[in-house]
Every structure is written in C-alpha cells, then in structure tokens.
Specification:
Elements: H1 21-30, E1 45-46, H2 58-66, H3 75-88, E2 92-96, H4 99-110, E3 116-119, H5 124-132, E4 136-139, H6 160-170, E5 178-181, H7 194-207, E6 211-214, H8 218-228, H9 237-246, E7 250-254, E8 265-269, H10 272-285, H11 296-308, H12 312-331, E9 344-348, H13 349-352, H14 362-374, E10 376-377, E11 379-381, H15 383-386, E12 396-400, H16 408-423, E13 431-435, E14 446-449
Parallel strand pairs: 1-10, 3-4, 5-6, 6-7
Antiparallel strand pairs: 2-8, 7-8, 9-12, 11-12, 13-14
Helix pairs in contact: 1-14, 2-11, 3-11, 4-5, 8-9, 8-12, 12-16, 14-16
Bound molecules: ligand F0G.
Residues 49, 51, 98-100, 123, 125-126, 181, 185, 214, 216, 254, 256, 265 line the site of ligand F0G.
C-alpha cells in the first residue's frame, strides 16, 4: 500500500470554529497584523508551533488519572525517571516545567561572562539563556543550510572546521560545552547525522569538553538517521536514539515536542558535581527534585509519551505527513526549505513575494495573507523575529505541524490555501511597523499594511 495512514483513530474531538474572510479581516486588523495577538478561536488550522500542541493518547490520559501528587518520591516520578533512563541512559534525570527552564539551569551553572557556546543553531530561548548568563552564543551550522534549494540529507550538521577554528580563535578555556540541536529547528527542522555527532564528540574529547544535545526532537532526528544515513537503515530508532544520547554528556529537552505532552521538560546529566549543583538550582526555582515544576500526572504523561514517540509506524506517519505538505507545495511552485524538515515546512518568503523588500517584511505579509484567506496561522521567522539588530539571511514562514492533531484533509486544505495565496501573490502588500518593544519584538509588535 502506498498511502501511509494516521496510525491512530480519534476518540475525543475538539470542534474548530469556521470563520469567514470578513471576520478574519477584522480580527487581523484588531491584532495589529500580529498573529500572536489573535484569539486561538479565530484560527481554523493552527500551525504557529508544534510545541505543546499535540494530542495525547488514551494511555497518556490514563496516566493523568494515575498521577501520584506526593510532594517527594511520588510513584509517578519513579516511573518517569526509569522510562527516561531506559531510553537515554543518563544517570541524572531532572524534571523541569519546559525546555527553557532546563536551559536556564544549565547556563546558570556552565555559562557566564567571557564564555562562548557553540551550537549548530541556537533556538531563540537557548540563545537568550546563554546570553543572559553573560556568555556568547555562536552558530556553526554547515553552509549548505543557508541554501533553501540544496537537498543535502543532513543540513543540521555542525561544520567541524568552523568548530575547530572557534576553539583556536577563542581558546578552549572560554568554551564550557558544545551543544547540538536535534533536529535543527532554526535551520528548517533539518536533522544532524550520527557521524556528525561523533565528529563533534571527537573534537570535545580532544579539548576535554562536555557535549550537550538540545534534544527536543530526538526521535524525529533518529528516524531521519535511519532513513538517510549510510549503514543505519536496519537499526531500530530506539537504538539510534540511545547511541545519540550515549555520545553526549548531557541534554536539555522540551517534552512539549517529542515527549508528546502539552507541558514538561528534562535536564539530563552524567556528571555528579554538575548534577548536584543543578538540583540545588532546580529546588530554588522549579520545585523539588522529584517533580521539578510539574504535577505528578504530567510526569506520567511524559513517561508514556517518550515511549510512544519511538513507535516506528508513528514516526513514519509523522515524517511522511510533513513531507507530504512540503512536496505538494513545491510541486505547486512554492519554494520551501528543501528537503522538508521533521516538524515544520518553511516557506521562502523572498521567493514567494519578491516584490516586497525585507524591510517591508515579506514573511509577515505572506503569513497574514494565509490567515485572511483560509484561517491558517503560521509564524514569520525573518526580519520581524530576528531583524531588530541585523537583517537575517532568510525570510521564512514556518508551518509547524502539531503531533497527531490534524488529519490529511486538514493538510490538503492548507496546501490548497497556500497555493491560492501564491497564485495571487502579486497583490500581496508589505507591512510597516507602527509599535514595537525594544526586544523580542515579534510577540507584541503591531503593523499596518502598506
Ligand atoms: N530548543 C528548541 C530546539 C526548541 O524548538 C524549543 C522550543 C526550545 C528549546 C524551548 O523549549 O518551549 O519547552 O521552553 N520551541 C518552540 C517552537 C517554542 O515553536 O519552536 P520550551
């Protein structure tokens, strides 16, 4: 059979409010053309993020009822700890309320003024936490990542030569750790190869530095390794996941992605001394070590989700459905970052609306047009998000796919809508900022249409 179906059936449904273009036009004006300002009820298909927006399974909901809410030593914590230990092999497993809390704790301990942290691409909260500690965040992704049309299989890889020259330039003493984001969200959801993780590990060993994974989408990355990397095709995804984690000294994870939950995070460590320090910070700002800012029921849901995400029929459907969206847009003449990533499709807004210059925010214009035309909410990742200091090298619109939430007909609707907006692209108008905050402007900025 050629069709890969959703490997689940639907037990609970959440109605979608169908709105008219006139209603959405008004909502858009009220929101100052900022899609973060929309009420979610005014959205038909919400592709703003794949984070915390997925559907939980019957077993996860059963876990919610089983949750042990004891302050210390809850049964749910041990179930969570044992499951995570079995999947990742880490000695120290700290629950946090979400990924950025793990990042904050890690960089409070390992960051600091004068330090430099390399990564393929820092996600924006990771960068913010590195910089908040006083350290500098440096992105060292391979050059092909910047070419949307290049179909290299592992565009999330770190450029080893760039990593070596950073060590030379700033000196090993300035580098507290090396980080790799799997998959590389900011670079289009592109995977990192096992070989690249090994090569980075070798550099870390040479300079005696720990390697950390930002492993939010660890299962999607491992599936790509199985599909694309030479010699990996016959392995189970679980064994690839384990090898990825075995190569690292620690990991920060947002369970809101491949943990298949709506809230939760993890900080995984091997070093006893770092773990002791991290537990102290955890207690001070998140919660006791056996719940870390989560309820017992949340820990149950994460334990179950981390196991379900490794089912290969799930991953095959997941990666294929993202690819289906991407390949259909490409076939209809819409340039995306190729090849399609794991959790999202990124439209190339410069190609979509070449008549709108970056300072008139082509990505925002495309995102607003998709909302007005069909009620689809996507996220601009370009001059609005990153252009406050210097223009970014790409103007993108991210269509992130929540896990197990939308069916193929929802995705067919998205494809149709994007192609219709694209057919009418000559009528897209640029935007002008009328109000903005000094930092992280994309959340609250307001625009008007030119
Ligand atoms: N690292 C990566 C690679 C991420 O994609 C995210 C979140 C985080 C860390 C932070 O995790 O949200 O649980 O605190 N990404 C979401 C997104 C928000 O839309 O891409 P968090």
């Amino acid at each position: 059979m050629k069709t890969i179906i959703e490997p689940f059936r639907i037990k609970v449904v959440e109605p979608i409010a169908m709105t008219t273009a006139t209603h959405r036009d008004l909502a858009l004006k009220k929101a100052g053309y900022n899609l973060f300002n929309l009420a979610a009820e005014d959205v038909i298909i919400d592709l703003l993020t794949d984070s915390g927006t997925g559907a939980m399974s019957a077993e996860q909901w059963a876990g919610i009822m089983r949750g042990d809410e004891s302050y210390a030593g809850a049964r749910s914590f041990f179930r969570f700890r044992d499951r995570v230990a079995q999947i990742t092999g880490f000695e120290h497993i700290l629950p946090t309320h979400q990924g950025r809390a793990s990042e904050r704790i890690l960089f409070e301990i390992m960051g600091g003024p004068g330090k430099v942290v390399p990564n393929n691409n820092h996600f924006d909260t990771t960068r913010a936490n590195v910089e908040h500690s006083g350290a500098k965040a440096v992105d060292l992704v391979v050059d092909v990542a910047h070419d949307p049309k290049n179909r290299a299989p592992f565009k999330g890889n770190i450029d080893i030569a760039k990593l070596r020259s950073l060590f030379k330039e700033v000196g090993a003493d300035a580098i507290p750790l090396v980080m790799i984001t799997v998959t590389n969200n900011s670079g289009g959801g592109q995977p990192v190869s096992l070989q690249n993780i090994k090569d980075v590990r070798a550099v870390c060993d040479e300079f005696d530095k720990p390697l950390f994974l930002d492993a939010c989408r660890f299962a999607e990355n491992a599936f790509f390794i199985k599909e694309r990397e030479e010699g990996q095709g016959d392995r189970s995804v679980s064994s690839i996941v384990r090898e990825m984690f075995d190569l690292a000294d620690g990991a920060t994870i947002s369970a809101k992605k491949d943990g298949l939950v709506n809230i939760g995070g993890l900080l995984l460590l091997r070093d006893d001394a770092v773990a002791a320090e991290a537990r102290n910070v955890l207690i001070m700002t998140e919660g006791f070590t056996s719940y870390g800012g989560l309820a017992g029921r949340d820990l149950e849901a994460v334990a179950q989700g981390m196991e379900e995400v490794l089912h290969e029929d799930y991953l095959e459907y997941r990666i294929r459905s993202t690819e289906y969206l991407g390949e259909n847009l490409l076939a209809g003449g819409v340039q995306i970052i190729e090849p399609p990533g794991g959790h999202a499709i990124y439209l190339d807004a410069c190609d979509f609306a070449p008549h709108i210059p970056p300072h008139q925010f082509p990505g925002q214009a495309v995102a607003c047009a998709m909302y007005r035309h069909a009620g689809i909410r996507a996220c601009e990742i370009g001059s609005v998000m990153f252009g406050q200091e210097q223009p970014p090298d790409m103007e993108l619109v991210r269509l992130a796919i929540p896990r197990r939430t939308y069916t193929q007909s929802h995705i067919d609707y998205v494809i149709e809508a994007v192609l219709e907006v694209h057919a009418d692209r000559d009528n897209l108008r640029g935007m002008r900022i009328v109000e903005q905050p000094p930092v992280l402007r994309h959340f609250t900025v307001r625009f008007e249409e030119l």
